[in-house]
Amino acid sequence: MSESIKDRLAKAVAQLEETKKAVAHAQEQLSTASVTVRSRDRSVEVTVNAQGQLSEVKFLDGKYRSLGASQLSASVMEAARQAQARMAQTVLDTFRPLSETAGGRPHIEGSGVDWDQIFGPLTDTVARGASARGGASDGLRDEIHEDGEKR
């Protein structure tokens, strides 16, 4: 026996209301979210907000003084990319429970929302953060860092 149009409409409206509540809850969670990451050489600490914008940069324990400009810049960029990648993953994880497609992105049937367009940049940021973990300057940074260490 098939459902009446009235019953299907009532279910759709109820589902839409639940989705609205879930989106509002996710937005509330993310409104105060931030991620803080230290560079591998422990010279820089970067904090980003839910939009991935830098909200704070700290230079730690005077370690930055022993770095050249390019090394310091690389440390800041490394920490910023890692923090942005972690925040992007947090945003994706926050919205994922709403509904998923095989690609792991939210999908609300009939919403007219292009979730790939909305969340695509976040997945790109996560991927860039993962690839930034190993870079061309790693060996140099490790050698510089190890030179001052006692074994």
SSE layout and pairings?
Blueprint (H helix, E strand, L loop, with lengths): L4 H27 L2 E5 L5 E6 L4 E6 L9 H27 L19 H17 L6 H10 L4
Antiparallel strand pairs: 1-2, 2-3
Helix pairs in contact: 2-3
Q: Assembly type of the shown chains?
A: single chain
Broad shape: elongated
Report on the biggest sheet: 3 strands, antiparallel
Return the string of H and E elements.
Answer: HEEEHHH
The poorly predicted ranges are 101-105, 134-151
What is the number of domains? 1
Number of strands: 3
CATH T-level fold name: Ybab, Chain: A
Structural class comes to: mainly alpha
Structure description:
- With about 150 residues, this protein is mostly helical.
- Helix content is about 55%, strand content about 10%.
- Strand 1 and strand 2 form a beta hairpin.
- Helix 2 crosses helix 3.
- The longest helix has 27 residues.
- The chain is elongated.
- The protein starts with a helix and ends with a helix.
